[in-house]
Amino acid sequence: MQHPESHILFFDIESLIIELLTEEYNMMSPGSLEAAGLISQSEYLKVAALTQSASPDAHKKIAGKCIRL
């Protein structure tokens, strides 16, 4: 049997995980990734180019929706 508000706990935990991963990702730099042997500078630039949003407002819209959750 599930508690009627168990989904709230799930979304809180999911939100925390996303926040922690975002903080870790923001601390990464091409130099630190390369020093750890995880990626080369050219590969990092390729991935960074692929992950950039075509719309400058897209990140703000997504972040706003996440905050409301």
What does this structure look like?
The chain has helices at 6-27, 30-35, 41-51, 58-68. It contains 4 helices and no strands. The protein has one domain.
What's the topology here?
Elements: H1 6-27, H2 30-35, H3 41-51, H4 58-68
Overall pLDDT confidence: 77
Instruction: Please compute the radius of gyration using only Cα atoms.
Output: 17 Å
Terminal Cα span? 24 Å
Number of domains: 1
Helix content: over 70%
Strand content: under 5%
Uncertain segments: none
Structural class, judged by helices and strands?
mainly alpha
Q: What is the number of helical segments per DSSP (H or I, 4+ residues)?
A: 4
* SSE series: HHHH
Shape: flat
Q: What's the total number of strands?
A: 0
Biggest β-sheet strands, sense, barrel = none
In summary, what is this structure?
It contains 4 helices and no strands.
Which terms summarize this structure?
flat; 4 helices; 69 residues; mainly alpha
